[in-house]
Amino acid sequence: MKKMTTLLSFFLLGLLVLSACQPAEAWQVLATPRAEFLTLLVGFNDTTFGISIGEDGLLFHTGDGGQTWLEADNQSMGLYGLEIVDGEVAFACGQGNQVRQTVDGGLTWQVMADFGAGFPNHCRFMSFSDARTGWAATPSMLGTTTDGARSWTQAGLPDGVSSVAAISQYAPGEGFVLDVSGSLYATLNDTASWTLVGQLPLDGITIEAKSYPLAAMRFQNARQGMVIVSALVDGAGVVTAFHTVDGGATWTRETALARYGALFLSRDGRYLTVLTPPTSLTVLEYRGE
Fold this sequence. Notes:
Layout: H1 2-21, E1 27-31, E2 41-44, E3 50-53, E4 59-62, E5 70-72, E6 79-84, E7 90-94, E8 99-102, E9 110-111, E10 125-128, E11 134-137, E12 142-145, E13 153-155, E14 164-171, E15 174-179, E16 183-187, E17 195-199, E18 215-219, E19 225-233, E20 236-244, E21 252-257, E22 262-265, E23 271-276, E24 280-286
Antiparallel strand pairs: 1-24, 2-3, 3-4, 4-5, 6-7, 7-8, 8-9, 10-11, 11-12, 12-13, 14-15, 15-16, 16-17, 18-19, 19-20, 20-21, 22-23, 23-24
């Protein structure tokens, strides 16, 4: 009996050692705060700073990871698109072609130049490479700015795009557009021309065209990027991450979370915010390579 107990102890110890050697999950849940107000999209830029945009132009911000939220004064229709450039500068867009900007971390918001079209073709995608240079998009329109949204120039979408799912500008004039079919297009000349560079291996996942973003995309350069898709698969919500290191030619895939909702991915690709209606938030950090 003593010998059997000793063998069992060694066996259990071995399991513990093997378990400790296993790689940690790439996506770790950091927090599950709640948004006790009308919101359509929430984004966290890091572990503390986040912004909520919503119906009737409601704007909130937090500096403590979502424990408390402060409302900002704003007059607009519903806001559906969000870009957080850093801890001070952010943009929002939505119905009525309306665009808003903050330069003080969400305390105050300014009216910027209009972009978009009437509902349901309103602005819901935004991506800036710095505080002045960026893109905004509806499902069928793309606009560029070089003066911090004080003006917009309408740009041509790639041939073959049926409905925009996500956009990513990683440098002035350089970036990607993702179609709901999973087709990825790249430009190096500020949307003057586009090249089909890859296809997401969706394998049963459907990117829905909703009034809020169910896909998020961030590229750090022309080769390294990430796409996150929230979808219903066999009736269950699943958030899936796709990674590429060769500009979209090949992809690796992993499940990030068993939830469903509007997505926001921080510019560095580290922090993912999932809003599951009506008020449930999940903030995750990417700890993979």
